[in-house]
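Re: the request from the purification team.
They wanted to know what the chain is likely to look like in 3D before they choose a buffer screen. I agreed to run a prediction and write the result into the notebook, where they can find it.
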Amino acid sequence: MKILYFALVARTPQQGRGRRHPAPEVTTIANLLDWLADHDEAAATALEKRSLIKAAINAKLVQHDASLAGAHTVALFPP
């Protein structure tokens, strides 16, 4: 899955973009945010206020409970 980071979120994890392979139990945006924070200290700092992070899957805005099934690209950005 390709993950794109924007604005403040982009300053830390993977310098704005990267291919990541989350664990199989990562099935939603919320799970992905937790997984990213658990695997990257800089990401943990950037994603600290998760309620402010917006997300898109395959260029469509989604809520944090959205499924990652079929996701090719996930974008994370502040409001």
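For the purification team: The longest strand covers residues 73-77.
Please add any questions underneath this entry.
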